[in-house]
Specification:
It contains eight helices and nine strands. The protein is α/β, with parallel strands linked by helices and 266 residues long.
């Protein structure tokens, strides 16, 4: 039996709910082997982040080279990068990689704090967005990238997605989880079509790692050969199940993780 492999390039979450840890759990739950490149270490739990320490640029480059020199990677998911130098280093390391790249632009914390400065945002737009097969911003992140107010309507989401495609992204998934509507509405925009994905907003505080996990699930499904539309559809449904079962985990005292393995045990 052969299994496809995917690579995540992101920060580490010591609490296990987001970042590299969420990505690897997601890959495994979707039947994909996961390799990883850590860009930053964080001291965090379900209640917050207390310290962040960057990994050296040489180490980031060496990790990427080590993985790509040995493992046949069918898709790459990119998450937290943190600085312009890291973004440029990752872009250089992936110069010869020809496979799909799922870029999750981790730019705005749940608190609303900006996680990238202006130089890093510009580096992301110039170096990685044009390489992305699909860009998966939440509403605040999309607004930052296009320098606009946060989208509140489907038409505004569509306009911002098209603006992001003008930066070079081949597809954009506008993640609507930050809206306040009773229905969560995600909008996938490609050059020749648009697709909407809706689900009831669930009453749970255990949503830590939701964005990371959705993007990683999409990467896993694309690695298995699904189209972008089918990958998003399957991943959207999977994440709803992970959120519905999140409370059963009872992890930590704050915002706990989603249940990545809800299809296997609970």
């Amino acid at each position: 039996m052969s299994i496809v492999s995917a690579l995540t390039i992101a920060g580490s979450d010591s609490g296990g709910g987001a970042g590299i840890q969420a990505d690897l759990k997601t890959f495994s739950s979707r039947g994909v082997y996961g390799a990883s490149v850590i860009t930053a270490l964080t001291a965090q739990n379900t209640q917050g982040v207390t310290m962040i320490e960057a990994v050296s640029l040489d180490m980031i480059m060496a990790q990427i080279k080590a993985v790509l020199d040995d493992i046949d990677i069918s898709a790459i998911k990119i998450g937290m990068l943190g600085s312009a130098d890291v973004i440029k280093t990752v872009a250089r390391a992936l110069t010869h990689y020809q496979g799909p790249i799922i870029l999750d632009p981790v730019m705005v914390a749940k608190s609303g704090d900006r996680l990238l400065d202006n130089d890093a945002e510009q580096a992301l737009i110039e170096c990685l967005v044009p390489r992305s097969s699909i860009l998966t911003p939440n509403l605040p992140e999309a607004a930052c990238l296009v320098k606009a107010d946060q989208a509140e309507t489907s038409d505004q989401m569509r306009q911002q997605a098209k603006a992001l495609m003008n930066y070079g992204a081949r597809a954009v998934l506008m993640k609507g989880g930050h809206s306040t509507a009773a229905l969560c509405h995600d909008l996938l925009v490609q050059k020749d079509r648009e697709d909407s994905f809706t689900a009831p907003r669930l009453n749970t505080r255990n949503t830590h790692g939701t964005g990371c996990s959705l993007s990683s699930a999409i990467a896993a499904e694309i690695a298995k050969g699904k189209t972008v539309v089918d990958a998003v559809q399957v991943s959207h449904q999977w994440l709803q199940g992970a959120l519905k079962k999140a409370d059963k985990l009872d992890i930590g005292k704050g915002h706990g993780p989603v249940h990545h393995f809800h299809e296997f045990w609970s």
